[in-house]
Amino acid sequence: MDWLNTIIRTFFDFGAMAEVLPQLLAVGLLNTLIISVAATVIGVVLGMVVAVMGISPSRWLRIPARIYTDLFRGLPAILTILLIGQGFARLSQSIFGPSPYPLGIIALSLIASAYIGEIFRAGIQSVDKGQGEACRALGMSYGKSMALVVIPQGIRRVLPALVNQFIAIVKDSSLVYFLGLLVSERELFRVGQDAAVLSGNLSPLVMAGIFYLIITVPLTHLVNYFDTRFRTGKRRPSAPTSGLNEVKELDAASPLTTGSNT
């Protein structure tokens, strides 16, 4: 049973876990959520712009959107983070100070916007074309019909995919540590890694992994809920009398009934 004791000491040292727990809560969890939420909000805004450009009738908008999407989806996330974090370090210092925190958020936002743009584009293009044609028949412009009718329907259809993308951003936020964050800016992975180095075992990293699971597992089930409600089109069954009411209304409005009343 020596192997079992070795595994417990290496991965499940509860003393080391308890020691790192306050830092994970006060520093790691807070910064992970800040990075993830900020990158998601910026990514959604940029992603919507990319999606609208990608479905535009103008080639001058479609081609740049396609290049942008292929670029940031094709590069590994860590490479993008390092290129932006190190390439714009001097510019960032003059604007944000010595902290690489904002550059990490910007890099994750650019990556997320490429994926979110494709999600929005697929959702918008899944809306029946008759919706837009009906809007134009009513005298609405292309932009107004997209903003008021087509895009809202498309967003509703891709909510599960957006939640999945947020989960991916939460996990990718661990890569920001490569930029050398300040002590007060460490996210979950960096806090767990530093504590693992000091304690000599991997229990703090396991504890950090538990925090990631606490965030991502409920969101995964939320995706399933959204998928059931929106994507599969399940609705509450209508009351049995609703069909009779519709028949009565149609019967009352029929020409034969109208003629008999007169």
UniProtKB/TrEMBL annotation:
<dbReference type="InterPro" id="IPR000515">
    <property type="entry name" value="MetI-like"/>
</dbReference>
<keyword id="KW-0812">Transmembrane</keyword>
<dbReference type="InterPro" id="IPR010065">
    <property type="entry name" value="AA_ABC_transptr_permease_3TM"/>
</dbReference>
<feature type="transmembrane region" description="Helical">
    <location>
        <begin position="101"/>
        <end position="120"/>
    </location>
</feature>
<feature type="transmembrane region" description="Helical">
    <location>
        <begin position="20"/>
        <end position="50"/>
    </location>
</feature>
<keyword id="KW-0813">Transport</keyword>
<dbReference type="Pfam" id="PF00528">
    <property type="entry name" value="BPD_transp_1"/>
</dbReference>
<protein>
    <recommendedName>
        <fullName>ABC transmembrane type-1 domain-containing protein</fullName>
    </recommendedName>
</protein>
<feature type="region of interest" description="Disordered">
    <location>
        <begin position="235"/>
        <end position="262"/>
    </location>
</feature>
<keyword id="KW-0472">Membrane</keyword>
<feature type="domain" description="ABC transmembrane type-1">
    <location>
        <begin position="29"/>
        <end position="223"/>
    </location>
</feature>
<keyword id="KW-1133">Transmembrane helix</keyword>
<feature type="transmembrane region" description="Helical">
    <location>
        <begin position="204"/>
        <end position="226"/>
    </location>
</feature>
<keyword id="KW-0029">Amino-acid transport</keyword>
<comment type="similarity">
    <text>Belongs to the binding-protein-dependent transport system permease family. HisMQ subfamily.</text>
</comment>
<feature type="transmembrane region" description="Helical">
    <location>
        <begin position="166"/>
        <end position="184"/>
    </location>
</feature>
<feature type="transmembrane region" description="Helical">
    <location>
        <begin position="71"/>
        <end position="89"/>
    </location>
</feature>
<keyword id="KW-1003">Cell membrane</keyword>
<dbReference type="InterPro" id="IPR035906">
    <property type="entry name" value="MetI-like_sf"/>
</dbReference>
<dbReference type="InterPro" id="IPR043429">
    <property type="entry name" value="ArtM/GltK/GlnP/TcyL/YhdX-like"/>
</dbReference>
